[in-house]
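Protein modeling request. Please complete all fields; requests missing the sequence field cannot be processed.
Requester role: graduate student
Desired output: 3D structure, token encoding
Chains: 1
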Amino acid sequence: MKVYLKMTVESNRDDLSENNAVQILCDSYINAIHKIRDENFDEIFEMMFQARRIYIYGSGQVQNSIAKELYRLFSNEGVYLYPLDHTVNYEALCKNMKQEDLVMIITLSGKSPETLKLAKFLNMQGIPFISITKLQQNPVAMLSNASIFFQTSQYEIISKAIDSSSVLFLICEILALKYQNFIKKKQEQAVSAGETGDQE
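Delivered output (200 residues):
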């Protein structure tokens, strides 16, 4: 009987722990979505709109997947993001990149040596870049011209800590929709300005 009670208590604790992990993960998604929904990205979108070319760089496997998703979503809006290889050819960048271009850097920590090297190179060349990172205080974000921050939550699978980054895919969709609204607003303003000019 005591053994049974002990097993039941331990089972209930495991269930409670699992439920807490699920709750924390779901809450983190909701909070991240609300934050991105309420954020004003007009400055970033204006940089994208004015850029001659937009390059995108992911610092790892997950980040590259996010870069591909952003490419897919923004290409539907007629905005093409040119991918940069994980191993950057700086000689080629010097020849092809101009100060009228824009780079988007996706990195979780903002501290990896290769990513930081790219950020410093862009600064030296006077090429603006946008950082997309999960930590607010990091070297890449501090060097960037504009930043998009996101939050991740950590949970365990078979006693292994996992940093959830799935929310980034949701953020990509919201960003694409917000950019679409930004372009529509610019078009409406241009039409309105044209009509005002005709009346004068």
